Amino acid sequence: MDPLSSISDELAEINGQIADIFRALSNGFQKLEKIKDANRQSRQLEELTEKMRECKRLIKEFDGEVKNMEGRNDPNTNKMLNEKRQSLVKELNSYVALKKQHQANLENNKRVDLFDGPSEGFGEDNGLLASSMTNQQLMDNGNQMMDETDQAIERSKKVVHETINVGTETAASLKAQTEQMNRIVNELDSIHFSIKKASQLVKEIGRQVATDKCIMALLFLIVIGVVVIIIVKLVHPGNKDIRDIPGLAPPAQTRRLLWNAT
Question: Which parts of the sequence belong to the T-SNARE coiled-coil homology domain (predicted)?
Answer without folding.
Answer: 143-205
